[in-house]
Amino acid sequence: ISDQAVRVVPIHDRPKPVYAMANGKAMLSLLTDAQITALLHDQMPALTPQTTVSLPALLQQIAEVRANGFSYDREEHAEGVCAVGIALPVPGRSAHALSVVLPSYRFAARLPAIQQALEEVRQMCLCILSPCSK
């Protein structure tokens, strides 16, 4: 949990839909477009004015996640809250996702540092799963 006066704390007993969360989009990126379509059935109600509610638009976002490795929630699950996430596939086990959630007014300024930290975590996980040369 952040040491900032204004912070975002995930509430685990109030799950949000995968299409509106950075960690959910990271997990969706591990599925095929056909699997995502079957899972969501184009049923994506808005949680905020920024929530992606179009399956084609979501599939485009997922294609970008697959290409650059990062997923985003830009006030999609809650107004004033943003997140960046990564998928962490684990061979032989369920995949995982990790996201950093923060107030929207800090998002742009902190994004490069958060992405760097998430990439370091991803590389550490990869090294654990298959030893690295480092």
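the 2nd protein, sequnce then structure:
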Amino acid sequence: MNYLNLDKDKTEKTVYELNVLLADYHVYYQKLRNFHWNIFGKNFFDLHEKFEELYDDTKLKIDEVAERILTLRSQPVSNLSKYLDLSNLEESSSDLSDTEMIDILLEDHGKLLKQMRHIVEVADDGKDEGTIDLIGEYIRELEKTSWMLDAWRMKTSEGLKKSSVS
């Protein structure tokens, strides 16, 4: 670890939290596959494609998080049973409407963002800018995705709050 110039004890805390995120992403990935396979109705084409886009992106993030853990000279968790134990997310049913699926994903996004922000705090304590940079990008992307999914489920009559600058 000396080549990274990071405190070993503080890095262990970061690694633990990264493993929780890795578990979260695995549960999220499988949920997206479930929704991709089981979407039906008038929004099938849009959501089938969106869920595939999201799980492809999640698959890449899973690999990046595991590689960050390895970079920090630790072993990533790699057992499904351990993922279910560690994860902040829960599995979902396959018998859901399109709106229920989006609601569940947005709830999961809140949990993922909370975990990511926690990682940033822990990594900051350990002066681990590499982890902060990686997770900061994930936060920005997930916030944008959440906004788009939330816009999808809004009624057009709801609109947005008017800016105080207008």
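The longest helix spans residues 8-38. The radius of gyration is 18 Å.
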